[in-house]
Amino acid sequence: MIRMLLKEIAEAIGSSAPASEAKIPVRGVSIDSREMKPGDLFIAVQGARFDGHDFIGQAAIKGAGAFVCRRDKVGQLPGDVVIPRLVVDDTIEALGRLATYYRREVMPAYTTVVAVTGSNGKTTTKRMIDHVLGQSMKGRSSPRSFNNNIGVPLTILSGEADDRYMIAEIGTNAPGEVAALSAMVAPDIAVITSVGQAHLEGLSDLAGVAAEKASLLDHLRPEGLAVVDADSPELEPLLEKAGGIRMVTFGTSQYAALRLTSVRGTMDRTTFELDGRYHMVLPMPGVCHATNAAAAFAVALEFGVGVDEIAKRLKGFTPPDGRTRVLTMGQMKVINDTYNANPSSMLAAVNTLRQASGRRRVFIMGDMLELGAASPGLHRDVVGAICRAGIEVLVAVGPQTTEAVHSVAETPGGVRFVCCDDVDAAGKVLPTILLPGDTVWIKASRAMQLDQLVDDLRIKLGKNAAVA
Questions:
Q1: Which among 11, 89, 416, 459 would be 20 to 30 A from 466, CA to CA?
Q2: Are residues 304 and 355 in the same domain?
Q3: Mean pLDDT rounded to a whole number for the chain
Q4: pTM of the model
Q5: Is residue 100 part of a domain?
Q6: What gap in Å lies between CA 141 and CA 146, rounded to an integer?
Q7: 152 plus 265 within the same structural domain
Q8: Average pLDDT of 7-23?
Q9: For the stretch 213-238, what's the b/e string if a residue is b when 16 or more beta carbons lie within 10 angstroms of its beta carbon?
């Protein structure tokens, strides 16, 4: 964070600082007392499982220069905390206002801000862009999936004076969230990776998803660049309304400016041709990642990175853990794809696994969440696709996937079904199912916690478990 004075911060968030404290310097912002550095501003955020107001004392001990608290919590604060405080009605809103101010008034124009949204591939695309740009310039991207009304402002506030780029990931569960975060970020480059059946509980249907994602473009800075998926027809009318902005489209569509052709995938790599001229290689399974790479390619071109250099850097990309990360465990190959799931990403995983060689193909499928009334049918669709793909074993984890299995259990295909109530039950049964030579794909919505299965396998196989 670029140094700010407490008075400037107070004005930005709608609070006030006494004259005696106005010139106190603030060098960073944190919502976690464990991560405080001397001189940081601690913002006490109340979440579902914790209340930052309970940790103000610890933040002071760690050297916090000041803290922000809610007005209705002032009477509950520890009496021995003597560092300056800024009082507001809502600390999360204050965090957002501070980030908005920082983006517009403090962050240098030299820093190009990239915002990435989409139903699938947000985090992987963000990491690809960071991987390509970071080898020749200084910058940063949001850690993990910092894509909500807490993570996005923390990303913005982490910016330093000499950053050439910043990449923010923007997520949503309900209408209006992308627009609110996009207004805060005010991107110079806006990336929409895809439109799929995700968060239908809040966004209703594909048209609602497309409208939510496309709202990112409303906040693109003048002369900015939009990098948009050309394979989502739901976006087309929305893009027409956004006429007048610079835009690069990517995808397999014949109308894409960066067109993907000859896409091929194995369990170890994905290859494709881009724009009919550039041969690209990704060291990861899943042809869906070719579109993520195309988006990263377009962004890197905008920064002036050469074509050959982009291809070279993408070839050395390692996906984030939990997103089609290939692990060799003993004599098994395990694909850790546990971070998130929706119908389109599930089907992409099935289509990749069906091409695997080895003893057997095993798909461990957990529930896909936040799909609303369409959820039962969408789970049945994926289970049906697994049956048609000829995958030998399906381990269903969770009530929705189990119900879908029961509804299609008579479908021909010779699939062995194993149903588990939850991840603990799956952990107990897996050792009796998996065999040397199996290729195992593990995927579910994050809340299903199927990453525990990956950890269990690592422990059971010990030193034989390693990244491929």
A1: 416
A2: no
A3: 92
A4: 0.90
A5: no
A6: 9
A7: yes
A8: 95
A9: bbbbbebbeeebbbbbbbbbebbeeb
Asked if the structure places residue 118 within a domain, the reply is yes
Domain boundary among 291, 315, 339: 315
Q: Is 156 a member of any domain?
A: yes
Which domain covers residue 19, as residue numbers?
A: 4-89
Cα dist from 15 to 6, 62, 89, 156, 283, whole Å: 10, 24, 9, 20, 50
The mean-pLDDT minimum among 147-151, 200-204, 432-436 falls in 200-204
368 and 300 part of one domain: no
- Pair (122, 253) in one structural domain: yes
Q: pLDDT band at residue 468, thresholds of 50, 70 and 90?
A: very low
- The DSSP string of 364-409 is EEEPPPS-GGGHHHHHHHHHHHHHHTT-SEEEEESHHHHHHHHHST
Is the domain of 150 the same as that of 276?
A: yes
Q: Any idea what DSSP says for residue 318? A: -
Give kind and range of the element (H or E) at residue 444.
Answer: none
With 80 as the cut, is the pLDDT of residue 200 above it? Answer: no
* Mean of pLDDT values over 202-217: 89
C-alpha–C-alpha distance, residues 170 and 429, integer Å: 37
SS3 90: coil
- Check whether residue 311 and residue 332 sit in a common domain: no
Number of structural domains found in the chain: 3
Residue 92 tokens read as: 């999360």
The number of C-alpha atoms within 13 Å of 177 and in the hemisphere containing its C-beta is 20
* R_g of the chain, CA atoms, integer Å: 24
* Between 462 and 91, the higher pLDDT residue: 91
DSSP assignment, residue 203? H
Residue 129 confidence class, pLDDT cut points 50, 70, 90: very high
Q: What token pair was written down for 448?
A: 């299903």
Q: Are residues 332 and 403 in the same domain?
A: yes
Is 320 a member of any domain?
no
Measure CA of the first residue to CA of the last residue in the chain; give whole Å: 37
C-alpha distances in angstroms, 280 versus 125, 263, 271, 274, 411?
Answer: 15, 9, 6, 7, 39
Sign of the Cα torsion 374, 376, 382, 387 reads negative
Instruction: Examine the pLDDT at 258 and tell me if it is beyond 90.
Output: yes
CATH of the domain at 360: 3.90.190.20
302 and 350 inside one domain? no
